[in-house]
Design a protein that fits this description.
It comes from Timema podura. This protein has 28 helices and no strands. The protein is an all-alpha fold. It starts with a helix and ends in a 19-residue tail after the last helix.
């Protein structure tokens, strides 16, 4: 950066008494950050003394916050601890502030469990405000990732009766996902209970669908019960045709097909195999549903795949006309090639005439 080039031999000790103003300057901040990575104990101490006095202002500063973060990375245990004390009493305003929220996240990653819990306690009573805030939600996510879940029971309590509204919120849905990943089974149980009451609406919601997908892909042994997955799959049964054509729900149907037990998966594919020609045609040419059909072809057992192929095959010619139908054709050709080569058949399979039927005009 220009300032570094203008002062090629500038050292941290040359900035004595000017560390704070340098930290609030784009080039100065970068210079200090770079030097801190390889600084001597004495140099670090010099910088530290000066930033400590202005710590709160630097935490919320566009360039200064990075200097503070560097200390949480490269400082001694003692310095991190001292800096973390500067956060006390200010956690909420920092969490809601654009740069302060990054400092809090970095602090949570770098300090003792005891200090983490002191920081976290200041959010008690303000959980929903933070979760719905564009900066605060990142802090709450970081708390859930880094802090002992037992110290986070107040977050679970704040979510009582709010799970649906948070799952359909652009930031809330992320926090719910973190809870499902990191909290204890006792804590996730009431959250999942509320999710199950609203599965149908959540599946079709632009944010809720991610929460439902998350339940399907979780390692349930630690964070939920197999029934949680089965309950979602059950609510998709009988609705595959409708949900597969829906922009958000189709992703959930795909995850159901992928993460179901063998018998559950067979039932879902069975549903599609039982469709009349028209319903199947609708699915294969639909911009969302065609991916569900593809996924079913991918994950089905050989016997069921054969039935599915057999049902699809008569539609091949008409599918060629549709952008999305072409995906299915490519998939079928790949599988027919595989089976053909497995049987020692040379050359591509004959999937019927490629041009328009009856030679066009």
């Amino acid at each position: 950066s220009s300032r570094n080039n203008r002062f090629p031999s500038l050292q941290l000790r040359d900035l004595a008494n000017h560390i704070v103003e340098f930290s609030q300057d784009q080039h100065g901040s970068r210079f200090i950050q770079q030097k801190l990575e390889r600084a001597t104990v004495a140099e670090k101490q010099l910088v530290f003394q000066e930033i400590l006095a202005a710590a709160y202002n630097l935490m919320t500063d566009v360039f200064g916050n990075y200097v503070i973060q560097k200390f949480f990375e490269f400082g001694t245990h003692e310095k991190k601890s001292t800096l973390a004390q500067k956060v006390r009493g200010h956690v909420l305003p920092l969490a809601l502030q654009m740069y302060g929220c990054r400092v809090i996240q970095k602090a949570l990653e770098s300090i003792s469990a005891e200090q983490q819990q002191e920081i976290v306690r200041e959010l008690d009573g303000h959980v929903l405000k933070c979760v719905k805030d564009q900066n605060g939600n990142h802090v709450v996510q970081k708390c859930i990732e880094c802090v002992d879940p037992i110290a986070l029971q107040f977050i679970i309590n704040a979510f009582q009766g709010q799970v649906f509204s948070l799952s359909t919120h652009p930031y809330g849905c992320r926090v719910i996902q973190r809870i499902l990943e990191h909290c204890t089974q006792e804590q996730t149980s009431p959250i999942l209970e509320e999710l199950h009451q609203h599965t149908e609406q959540l599946i079709q919601d632009q944010y809720g669908n991610y929460v439902i997908q998350h339940v399907l892909v979780l390692r349930l042994a630690e964070h939920g019960k197999p029934e949680d997955k089965s309950q979602i799959i059950l609510s998709v049964r009988g609705k595959v045709l409708v949900l597969s054509q829906h922009k958000f729900a189709s992703n959930v149907v795909e995850k159901c097909v992928t993460h179901a037990t063998r018998s559950e998966r067979a039932v879902l594919i069975e549903e599609v195999c039982g469709f009349n020609d028209n319903a199947l045609h609708v699915m294969m040419k639909d911009q969302y549903a065609n991916y569900v059909v593809q996924k079913m072809i991918d994950v089905s057992e050989p016997a069921q795949r054969k039935v599915l192929m057999h049902k699809i095959r008569p539609h091949l010619n008409s599918l060629r006309k549709y952008t999305y139908g072409k995906h299915i054709i490519a998939k079928l050709e790949k599988f027919f090639m595989k089976t053909a080569s497995a049987m020692g058949v040379v050359g591509a399979p004959d999937l019927g005439p490629i041009g328009p039927p009856n030679g066009g005009l």
